[in-house]
Amino acid sequence: MGMLEGKVAVVTGAGGGIGREIALGLALAGARVVVNDVGASLTGLGETSAAPGAQTCAIIAQRGGEVVASTDSVAGWDSARRIVAAALDAFGRLDVVVNNAGILRDQIFHKMTPEEWLSVIDVHLNGTFFVSRAAAEPFRRQGAGAYVHMTSTSGLVGNIGQANYAAAKLGIAALSKSIALDMGRFGVRSNCIAPFAWSRMTSSIPAGTPEQKARVAKLQAMGPEKNAPLAVYLASDAARHVTGQIFAARHNELFVFNQPRPVRSVHRAEGWTPETIAAHALPALSAHLAPLDRSPDVFSWDPV
């Protein structure tokens, strides 16, 4: 008996990379799986294809798993509902949703266009909401369910040239916490993973300088399959007490992230003026100001 025996899971963006490995991991653990992928390019532009999702389905079927394909987009209310309906129609229930679908439109902030902003927000943040909202109805009816959302250290920590992606991914972390708070009464859990892996989503990272090449080499050592065990665990009943959390998987390391809380306060009985803030408040608070880090500044050691 696998950890997910009898469960039904939807995995979006499961045509390759991290999504495929998670879908395979869920199936290996006993889940029946809906493999969702529109088969779009990394940017979401151009023609779509059912082939990537079909390949994932074929691997699961060859290993004896039960699987159906979905090619609907996460980035629309009606199409997201069809993704959830695919699970209910094929398997009669839904227990797990893994929100993994994503695109990239990297651009330095002062050159970012409205279309570059909206396209990424639509797939990552709106897509996570749409699919999660559609699944909330069967989850509530059956009094159980697990969401696993993909966030990113680009949002949790920071990165250059990814304002759209970072905003969406940090928004997903907040959305997950809200889902955990709102739906805990129905036995529903919601958690995030910040995955580390070399995949299509990271293949666009620049590698023109020696420093950039060294960073890419580190990422290439991290296979997408390293994220699957954490996703399987969070989807399972073994994690029934875990909700509203942010985890990361980095090769053979696992992390849990803190979440924003006050770290220092100052009080002045007569209140504050701009001048007294400058003279007294900021000197007292300055030791606790967050540095302007990027993800590679925080995760600077080699994965082992």
Automatic annotation (TrEMBL):
SMART domains: PKS_KR. It comes from the Bacteria. InterPro entries: KR_dom, NAD(P)-bd_dom_sf, Peroxisomal_Beta-Oxidation, Sc_DH/Rdtase_CS, SDR_fam. Residues 7-204 form the Ketoreductase domain. Transmembrane segments: none annotated. Belongs to the short-chain dehydrogenases/reductases (SDR) family. This is Short-chain type. It comes from Methylobacterium crusticola. The lineage of its organism: Bacteria, Pseudomonadati, Pseudomonadota, Alphaproteobacteria, Hyphomicrobiales.
